[in-house]
Amino acid sequence: MQLEPMARELAVLLKARGDTVAVSESSAGGLVSAALLAQAGASKYFAGGGVIYTGPARKHFLGLPTRLPAAVRSSSEPYAALAAETIRSQFRTTWGLAETGAAGPSGNSYGDDAGHTCIAVAGPSTTLLTIETAQADREANMWAFAEAALNALLECLQQASVGSK
């Protein structure tokens, strides 16, 4: 999977708009942040982020409770939306990007199968989506999740660019 071309396009758009982004990812394992940071000039648009993989990490890095209400459990669209908005607010960025799921090889404790992730973008344009790869291959899922997250951010940036013309 090639994340670099998408990350390059994101870097160009973010810099041209003067926008910034913060990332909260879990089952992508840092691939989203790595792709964004691999671009020259990343310090102009990448404010920070983290791999929020556990309840204690969520509490420490996002300031959210270790245990969340059932309706806002990890690996859900409501949680992804909360994480995207929270990371955006904490870093005071234009965009917040969040990914939360189950990479595999087995599902998670919430009953989601391997290959399940939820992605949210918070900012001038927003999106919320669930991806199901139907694969147990952990590494392949991580790459697929990172690609889907970057693509979601790219689509939101493109929507915001059209809307500002």
Number of strands: 5
- Helical content class: 40-55%
Distance between the termini: 33 Å
Q: Unreliable stretches, pLDDT < 50, 5 or more residues?
A: none
Proportion of strand residues: 15-25%
Report the radius of gyration as a whole number of Å. 15 Å
Please work out how many helical segments DSSP would assign.
5
Q: Any idea how many domains? A: 1
Question: In sequence order, what are the helices and strands, one letter per element?
Answer: HEHEHHEEEH
Going by CATH, the architecture would be Alpha-Beta Complex
Mean pLDDT: 95
CATH topology grouping: Maf protein
CATH class: Alpha Beta
Instruction: Enumerate the strands of the largest sheet in spatial order, edge to edge or round the barrel.
Output: 2-1-3-4-5
* Global geometry: globular
Strand count, sense and barrel status of the largest sheet are: 5 strands, mixed
> In CATH, what is the homologous superfamily?
CinA-like
Structural class: alpha/beta
Give the helices and strands, then pairings:
Elements: H1 4-17, E1 21-25, H2 31-37, E2 46-51, H3 55-62, H4 77-91, E3 95-102, E4 116-122, E5 127-132, H5 138-163
Parallel strand pairs: 1-2, 1-3
Antiparallel strand pairs: 3-4, 4-5
Helix pairs in contact: 1-5
Brief overview:
With 165 residues, this protein is α/β, with parallel strands linked by helices. It is built from five helices and five strands, in the order H-E-H-E-H-H-E-E-E-H. It has one domain: CinA-like (Maf protein, Alpha-Beta Complex), CATH 3.90.950.20.
